[in-house]
Every structure is written in structure tokens, then in C-alpha cells.
């Protein structure tokens, strides 16, 4: 593997995935197998060792509202033969836990879905993992704001001469712009338009 850069190693991992990730999880409500966290993490860990890659994840921002935890993580994929050769991205993780496991669940979700999306792994899963059934809250209510919503907030902040949008959001009891949910962003946009006289 020596001589290959981080992108070439990433491509080698993608090639080695072949038929994808095992599906050892079982959704008893909808009756289907899915790629569980352990399936994804165990498969990718073995391929990273084989292809000389290291992955680290660290929290850079944290927001907790009731039982919902939303954390922005920095994930770094590094070439072990040249640690300066790396890919660094911010990726959100979300969890709903009324006890003390929100942070670890958010980290696991962030890493799992970053791995699946970054390495273009199709699991063929339908919808939610685990045992979500009828009447249970869906994640769509808590999905992060879209890029378009964030850009609109930034444009309105500029028009309203707001220098630090994150500080302004904090004053209103909201998370930083990067961690706003779609619903929160819609309310912020509406309030900013009202303040602008639109």
C-alpha cells in the first residue's frame, strides 16, 4: 500500500467491499434484515487495516433538547503511511435517548452513515433500522436544515447586518447554524424576514 495516497486507498476499500456490507440486523416490525452498526463498523475496520487507513471522530459542537441529542462531529480519514495525507469532514450525528447514552448513540450513527455515504455503500435497507413501528416518532422532524435554508439564513443575516449568526441563535436558545433542524431553520427564516419587513 505504500505510495498510495488517501484517495487511492479509499478507492481500494470501495473495490474490496465487493457485494457490500453483511445484514445481520433484523427489523421485526417490517420483517427485513438490515446492516446493523456492528456490521458496518466491523467490515470497514478490517478494510481500513488492510488498506492502511485510520479513522478518528471527535465532537466539535453539541446540542441537547429534551431527549434529542444532535452533535456535529469532525471525522478524519488518514493515510497511516503519511499522516498529513488525510480527508477531514464535519458530519452530524443524532440520537433520541432519555437516559445518558445520547452522545454515544449520536457518535455511532454519525460514523455509520458517514462510512456508508463516503464509501458509497448501498445496503438496500428500507427506511429506519431496528424496530421502528407505527406511531413511533420518525427522524424527519429532527433532520438538519438544508443547505438552501442555511444559505437563506446567512443572506438574511447579512441584510440585517448580523455579524455573528451563531451568537444570535444562541441568544434565542437555538443551536449554531450548522446544527439547526429544518423546523428550527424555517422559524428563524420567518422571524428574520419579519424583522427585515418582508
Strand content: 15-25%
- Give the ordered list of helices and strands: HEEHEEEHHHH
Shape: globular
Broad CATH class of the largest domain = Alpha Beta
> Which bin fits the share of residues in helices?
25-40%
Q: What is the radius of gyration computed over CA atoms, rounded to a whole number of angstroms?
A: 20 Å
Summed up:
The chain has 198 residues and is α+β, with helices and mostly antiparallel strands. Helix content is 39%, strand content 21%.
Description:
The chain is of the alpha+beta class and 198 residues long. It folds into two domains: 6-126, Enolase-like, domain 1; 147-196. Helices cover 39% and strands 21% of the residues. It has six helices and five strands. It has helices spanning 6-16, 37-51, 102-118, 147-159, 165-171, 182-196; strands at 25-27, 32-34, 53-65, 68-79, 86-96. The protein has a three-stranded antiparallel beta sheet. Strands 1-2 form a two-stranded antiparallel sheet. Helix 4 packs parallel to helix 6. The longest helix has 17 residues, at 102-118. It is globular and about 60 Å long. The protein starts with 5 loop residues before the first helix and ends with a helix.
Amino acid at each position: 500500500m505504500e505510495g498510495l495516497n488517501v484517495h487511492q486507498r479509499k478507492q481500494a476499500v470501495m473495490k474490496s467491499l465487493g457485494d457490500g456490507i453483511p445484514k445481520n440486523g433484523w427489523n421485526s416490525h417490517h420483517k427485513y434484515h438490515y446492516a446493523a452498526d456492528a456490521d458496518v463498523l466491523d467490515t470497514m475496520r478490517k478494510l481500513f487495516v488492510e488498506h492502511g487507513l485510520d479513522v478518528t471522530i471527535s465532537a466539535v459542537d453539541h446540542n441537547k433538547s429534551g431527549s434529542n441529542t444532535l452533535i456535529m462531529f469532525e471525522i478524519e480519514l488518514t493515510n497511516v503511511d503519511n499522516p498529513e495525507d488525510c480527508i477531514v469532514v464535519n458530519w452530524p450525528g443524532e440520537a433520541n435517548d432519555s437516559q445518558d447514552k445520547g452522545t454515544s448513540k449520536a457518535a455511532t450513527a454519525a460514523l455509520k452513515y458517514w462510512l456508508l455515504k463516503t464509501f458509497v455503500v448501498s445496503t438496500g435497507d428500507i427506511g429506519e433500522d431496528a424496530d421502528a413501528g407505527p406511531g413511533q416518532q420518525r427522524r424527519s422532524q429532527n433532520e438538519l436544515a438544508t443547505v438552501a435554508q442555511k444559505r437563506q439564513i446567512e443572506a438574511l443575516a447579512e441584510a440585517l447586518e448580523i455579524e455573528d449568526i451563531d451568537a444570535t441563535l444562541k441568544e434565542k436558545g437555538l443551536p449554531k447554524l450548522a446544527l439547526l433542524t429544518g423546523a428550527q431553520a424555517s422559524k428563524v427564516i420567518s422571524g428574520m424576514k419579519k424583522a427585515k419587513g418582508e
